[in-house]
Write a structure and sequence with these properties.
single chain, alpha/beta, six-stranded mixed β-sheet, 7 helices, 14 strands, 24% strand
């Protein structure tokens, strides 16, 4: 079981593309020690599109992968795959990658090993059809075939997906999301432990006696990331890349 360290940083849903490069700025700040982290948790959908078998998605991500591997020499980096970035294990040696099948990832703190955290991108515990579709989409042979089609069509498929992603509203509020959050918490069977997810982009924190749930904000929206403070009690401090604390 992985230990959650005081000062760990959580980032979700950066949705990096050739027009949105806030995550690159963040990594540069980490490299220069302008931002300091004991650990870095990447909670999925860090890229608009990065798939192990789809070669057209690799060139854009290559500098990020190299820098993440470099940063992993001075901090533990944990990458939970999302629904836009998956089958990533071939890219990383030092960064620890957790696929959909390995989520929820369970952590504990050093001071209280009973204080657990359940981490997931957010695309588990969906309706059976959608869950089956997402798992099928990760099939190596299907993706290899799609990669061939993408290649002979001059990357028509990947370019179309990326174009739609650039037009997509990543920042809308989901009506009655708190009710959905409470239902999702029950599915984790977390028993008063923390559940932390991305995917929904809602920046909602519920810290009650029987439920401790945090849906992270999308980094792509206001370049928000979260520093965990776990000295006396668990706190999530929101920071923004430009140096403005919230």
């Amino acid at each position: 079981m992985i230990e959650l360290l005081n000062g760990a940083i959580f980032i979700a849903d950066a949705h990096e593309n050739d027009e949105r490069k806030g995550f690159w700025e963040f990594l540069q700040a980490l490299k220069k020690d302008e931002i300091v982290a004991s650990q870095l948790f990447l909670m999925g959908d860090i890229f608009d599109l990065l798939i192990g078998e789809i070669s057209a998605t690799h060139d854009f991500a290559k500098p990020y992968i190299e820098l993440l591997e470099e940063l992993a020499d001075k901090m533990e980096i944990i990458y939970l795959e999302g629904n836009h970035d998956f089958n990533l294990s071939l890219f990383f040696n030092k960064v620890k990658v957790f696929s959909l099948e390995k989520q929820a990832l369970v952590l504990h703190t050093s001071k209280d090993k009973k204080c657990e955290f359940y981490l997931a991108h957010g695309d588990i515990f969906l309706n059976p059809f959608l869950e089956f579709a997402l798992k099928s989409l990760r099939n190596h042979y299907l993706l290899s075939f799609l990669n061939f089609l993408n290649f002979i069509s001059f990357n028509l498929i990947s370019r179309s997906i990326l174009k739609k992603q650039k037009q997509k509203n990543l920042f809308f509020k989901i009506e009655n999301f708190e009710l959905l959050a409470r239902k999702r918490y029950e599915k984790f069977k977390a028993n008063k432990s923390w559940v932390i997810e991305g995917h929904y982009h809602q920046n909602l924190l519920l810290d009650e006696e029987k439920i401790k749930y945090f849906n992270l904000a999308s980094f792509a929206y206001e370049k928000s990331f979260f520093i965990v403070e776990c000295e006396q009690e668990i706190k999530f401090r929101e920071c923004k890349l430009r140096g403005q604390n919230v």
